[in-house]
Amino acid sequence: MIAANDDFFAEKENLIKSSAPEWREDEYTDHGKWMDGWETRRRRTPGYDWAVVRLGLPGIVHGVVIDTAFFTGNYPEEASIDVCIVDGFDEVERTSGGSVRWETLLPKSPLKGNAKNEFAVDGKGMRVSHLRLNIFPDGGVARLRVHGEVVSDETAFAGEADLAAMASGGYVVSCSDMHYGNRNNLILPGKSTHMGDGWETKRRRGPGHDWAIVRLARRGVVDRVEMDTDHFKGNAPGKCDLEYCDAVADSKFDADSAKWSVLVPEQPVNPHAQHEWTVSSPKPATHVRLNIYPDGGVARLRLFGKTAK
Question: How far apart are CA 167 and CA 149, in angstroms?
């Protein structure tokens, strides 16, 4: 969170908490009822309230959720969203002081109270870094969720880079199962913090194996793979291998019809450990498939290499 014109009853930082909103029946603060969200005072003058959010990663927005959970008599009647792109260290002054050019992403739209208000938006291919939530005329919003695709600065690919990194635009397009952990946890920045911060499948009771397919941020040649099973001590896979394909010419990727080649042959997997494999000069790839045998959990996957034309 960057700034808000007012957060008298509840702090603006609550808007982007990762946890679901909660209700505390009898809890009050010096300012009034404790609310798990962003809440402004009752407006007695013309105008509206706003809060500015710096996106976790710049990209193109495709949808937003304005969640008014537990705000029943104090939610805004309407909301709108503006976006901009800002580079540099003066983001607070520029985004809250009016010196940037804001573009409308979501026009003024009605909201329901105590509800997840979902809106599909047309980002028009515009890369944005900041978002301004405007509420009319005042009130409270529990959570703000912004969905889209990461678009990295091209300088990220100047040399060797993690071509799978979510921070660069990588995406796990599909997987066989993610009963315990989301597939895109595999490519999050940094090391995992606990077992739920990785990708984990249910226990397999029949034939077959589990898998996840990563769409690389850029078509490139992978020359080094890092995979860790941090925190997976009794539920790591027994073995794994990796395959790659080059689907640059395909308008719509189809894993079943893609021509897969071996990137890393079958390898034993150790629990709660880091693994690294060097790859011997494969061809360019757009997608990589991680196969785990027969099931289990993987914390992170890194696919280092250089971009290809």
Answer: 10
**Using CA of residue 89, residue 91, residue 97, residue 99, what is the dihedral sign?**
positive
Q: What count of residues does the chain have?
A: 309
Q: Would you tell me how many other CB atoms lie within 10 Å of the CB of residue 156?
A: 16
Residue 70's contacts (CB-CB under 8 Å, 6 or more residues apart) are 21, 22, 23, 35, 36, 37, 114, 142
| pLDDT higher than 70, residue 249 | no
Report yes or no on whether pTM surpasses 0.85: no
Among the residue ranges 86-90, 93-97, 115-119, 179-183, the one predicted with the least confidence is 86-90
Contacts of residue 298, defined as CB under 8 A and 6 or more positions apart, other chains included, come to: 186, 198, 199, 200, 227, 228, 229, 232, 236, 237, 240, 290, 292
First to last CA, the chain: 38
> Which residues, in sequence order, are bridge partners of residue 302?
226
Tell me what pLDDT residue 251 has: 64
3-state helix, strand, coil in the chain (%, to 5): 10, 45, 50
Q: For 154-307, CATH number?
A: 2.60.120.260
Task: Kindly report, as residue ranges, where domains of CATH 2.60.120.260 are found in the chain.
Answer: 3-150, 154-307
**What mean pLDDT do residues 12-39 have?**
97
Task: Name the DSSP letter for residue 248.
Answer: T
Burial class (CB in 10 A: 0-12, 13-18, 19+), 28: exposed
Question: Which fold is adopted by the domain 3-150?
Answer: Jelly Rolls (2.60.120)
Whose tokens are 């990220």? That residue is 156
